[in-house]
Amino acid sequence: MEAAKLLCDSLFRWLENREECAGELSKLTQELENVPQGSNIFQAFRAVLSRSAASASVSPTPTATEAGVSSSAFNKASELIKEDEKVGTSIQKLLRDLKVRCGEDLKVRCGEAPLGAHADELDCEVTSQLMWALARRKDTPVPLDFLRGFNRATFFRHMTPGGLAPAEASDFICKALGLVLFTEITSSLKVSAKEMVKNIKLIGIKAVEAGSEALGATGLGISLYDLIMKSEELVKGNRVTEASEFLRDSAGEILDGQRKLKEQLDAMHEIIQKLFRMKNLIQNLGGYSLSMNEDEQRIMAYIMGTCTDNTVVSWLKGLPHNQNEFVNLLRFIQERLKHILEDLAKYSGDHIHIVFVAHGSIVDQFMPSGGLVPTPNIRDTVLYSPWNCAINPNTAFGIAQGNIQERDRQFYTLAEDEEYHLGLYEPTDLPDHWNSMRRFLSHDIPVILLYPLTPEDEAWMLFHQLWLNRRLEIEDRVIIPYLVPEDEVKAFGEIPLYMFIFAISYILSIDDRTATVHLAACLGLKERPEEWERQYAYTSVTTGMTVNIDDSDMESELFMALRSLFDGKRR
């Protein structure tokens, strides 16, 4: 975001200017302290004040020169005062602009709900955007989504209280990023993201009023112009020594404020560097494995620490091999998305449609539908058949191609002892839209399990050949059949759909891309719990869904692969 880049550039400009300001103010203080006792020191201070509003090229007044204050001291002080006011005002405007842009972006990505639900959502986005600008400035490119995930899991964790307990999550993050204690993020590293943004808000705000006896809480908001006015008031009251001490202390306070913000920016960049290394670890996973090496353990520690989805964390903490299986799943998703993400980069695209194709079923266990849209980079997950319903190759082909229409669906029985009649098995109260998880975030849904195809399955070779020839990519759409990589049968098993989608969201976050997920799988179960009646629609046992497709489509390689997978009754 350009607003964040401009703000970041202005902050570094302000840091340089403030350091120079403190030095010049100290010099000017020293010269004023050396003014002879008989000089009109009040006129000298008046000269400083008048010079701050005038052009820097004009010489100081005769009174000031006679008093022993050098021309260079006046000129430099005047230039810096004007520059400080200009940069400070600019920073406040840029910060306001950034907040407006971030607010608009949040509404587009997340809708109105997150802003209303979490008071800190806007600050989190502002912080993430500023970190992203700093990362690019320092040539350590960390994707914006990756930074958002870190900030939400650390400085703004209270907004999404799911996942591990805060102390346990902190331990995992420390292990992953190589920190001794999590307090290093906010203490030893001298940075709190929220505090830094709060400090930036003080820049350009006048913290010292004429006649006041005290400095501001930090040197960030001190106005150099106001310092001169304050000093003038002290001199006017014959408190010359106090005025000199005030200017000297102010110079120190200004330098302390400058150093504080610089330390926070430096510490923030140190965190960015650690996240940059973590991103590279994820991007450069090696081959499939039945065990995890040290780097993969660090990756899983980071994922466990930053994940705020209770369902995902529960699965990862379940069986001993689950974490290793998830690392292999990350490899699998990277492998399948590699080419289409590269193509998107060439054409400046940022959104893809991902179609999962697999054997599927549902279990009598429920989860929040939001688990299938776990992050904003998963815009939606769309299910097509009602619960307890199978699909045939025609339906799978329509989903894969992206041209399936609600009005074309028909239902039939899979029971061998019943006649095949279309239209007699349509569920009651069938909605006129597909089952969008983003649309029904407040609903509970059955857990969907996906089962891999192995090299022993006829469909495996057909899909594998299509993938090798890049025939599973259709413009911005990629079809991902759940195929066990050859010779890696033991590395994969049945995996819940929500874990596939969580893996996708992670891979997309390190590429700054978004996706809509579509599922082409059967959603059958022998019995129907009453809870299903509250979400979308359901069918009786042994019901399938089909659509009409052209005869020419039935000759395609994709259809033949789908037919070998979904080999139930079909039209």
What do these coordinates show?
The protein is an alpha/beta fold. The protein has 2 domains: 2-160 and 190-279, Up-down Bundle (Four Helix Bundle (Hemerythrin (Met), subunit A)), CATH 1.20.120; 320-565, no CATH class. 51% of the residues lie in helices and 12% in strands. It is built from 19 helices and 12 strands. The longest helix is centred in the middle third of the chain and has 44 residues, at 240-283. The radius of gyration is 32 Å and the shape is elongated.
Task: Summarize the model shown.
With about 575 residues, the protein is α/β, with parallel strands linked by helices. The chain is built from 19 helices and 12 strands.
Write the layout of secondary structure elements.
Layout: H1 2-33, H2 41-52, H3 62-67, H4 71-110, H5 113-117, H6 121-137, H7 144-153, H8 166-177, H9 183-188, H10 193-202, H11 224-236, H12 240-283, H13 294-306, H14 310-316, H15 322-346, E1 351-357, E2 359-368, E3 378-383, E4 387-391, H16 393-401, E5 410-413, E6 435-436, E7 444-451, H17 458-468, E8 473-474, E9 477-481, E10 495-496, H18 497-509, E11 514-520, E12 538-546, H19 557-565
Parallel strand pairs: 1-9, 1-11, 3-11, 4-12
Antiparallel strand pairs: 2-7, 3-6, 5-12, 7-10, 8-9
Helix pairs in contact: 1-4, 1-6, 1-12, 2-11, 4-6, 6-7, 8-13, 10-12, 11-12, 15-18, 16-19, 17-19
